[in-house]
Amino acid sequence: MNTKSNKIIYWVLTALIALVLTASAMGKLMGGAQAAEMAKGVGGLANLKILGILELTIVALWLFPKTGVVGALLAIAYMGGAIAVHFTSNQPVLIPVIIQIVIWLVAAYRFPELIKRLLGKEQ
Q1: Per-residue pLDDT of the chain (123 residues; tens, 9 = 90+)
Q2: Is 79 exposed, middle or buried (0-12, 13-18, 19+ CB in 10 A)?
Q3: Domain range for 93
Q4: Per-residue pLDDT, 48
Q5: Region at 81 (left for phi over 0; alpha for psi -120 to 50; beta for the rest)
Q6: Residue 32 has what pLDDT?
Q7: What share of the chain is helix, strand, coil (3-state, %, to 5)?
Q8: What burial class does residue 122 get, using C-beta atoms within 10 Å of its C-beta: 0-12 exposed, 13-18 middle, 19+ buried?
Q9: Treating both helix axes as pointing N-terminal to C-terminal, what angle do 33-42 and 45-63 enclose, rounded to 10 degrees?
């Protein structure tokens, strides 16, 4: 693949994760029927708003290439927490697991140095 194709793939994948996290954050911040149900699992509406702000912070870090690795690691940790909350509150975990896998795959594509460090391979 040429450089232009790589850049397009890079930004499409980056935008995909940003869109998913932004939509989730907006759902938490705007409220609604689904947010009220979700609030039971996380300890109330105030916590839900904090989680929405945290997701938007992760999106901001994720979008900038210089802070993208930090954003990726925070997104991975956040989704791990979401999976745990879903388990403990008897909610389906398939969607957070799929999002977690996609974040890992996009992070591997965007930041090959991260994968090299995690696997312990020399650079």
Answers
A1: 678 888 898 899 999 999 999 999 998 888 766 666 667 666 777 788 888 999 999 999 999 989 999 999 999 999 999 999 888 888 889 999 999 999 999 999 999 888 888 888 765
A2: buried
A3: 3-119
A4: 84
A5: alpha
A6: 67
A7: 85, 0, 15
A8: exposed
A9: 100
Token representation of residue 55: 């997701």
Long-range contacts of range 40-44, CB-CB < 8 Å, 24 or more positions apart? 40/89, 41/85, 41/86, 41/88, 41/89, 41/91, 42/85
Q: 96 and 78 in contact (C-beta within 8 Å)?
A: no
SS3 81: helix
